[in-house]
Design brief:
Elements (H helix, E strand, L loop, with lengths): L1 H19 L31 H16 L3 H28 L3 H7 L7 H13 L1
Length: about 130
């Protein structure tokens, strides 16, 4: 499981970076320097989760934690999840104000880090137990 999560995480990060292109920024707000034609990306990995690079980072981190059998790294990955969740809430508040169509996109792509279909299936399995 660890190596699969690590590989998937790296792949999702690479796909997200490729799809973001020149729009990629470490800042949690829309950059004034973004290309004029930079609209909302809703295809590729962005059609499954709203924050694929963060999702990939979480997968990669959890995979590495499992591979190294490190409880401390698992705890740090959970803390990273909490930090990224807080950061994305801030980002999305800004995106709702700055980008037309973001509310519709957020409604359509319900998964922030985990595709909605997977999260729903995990939730149903958890409810059965």
């Amino acid at each position: 499981a660890g190596s699969a999560l690590f590989f998937i995480g790296g792949l999702v990060i690479a796909l997200g970076i490729n799809e973001m292109g020149p729009r990629l920024s470490p800042w949690p707000v829309v950059s004034d320097e973004a290309p004029i034609d930079s609209g909302l990306i809703t295809t590729g990995v962005f059609s499954y989760v709203r924050h694929p690079m963060y999702a990939g980072l979480l997968c990669l981190s959890m995979g590495f934690s499992i591979l190294t059998e490190s409880e401390a790294r698992i705890i740090l990955t959970l803390l990273l999840y909490a930090c990224l969740s807080f950061k994305t809430d801030f980002e999305e508040d800004n995106l709702l104000e700055q980008i037309d169509g973001y509310a519709n996109y957020r409604e359509r792509v319900r998964g922030k880090f985990i595709p909605y279909s997977i999260a729903k299936e995990l939730d149903e399995k958890d409810s059965e137990n």
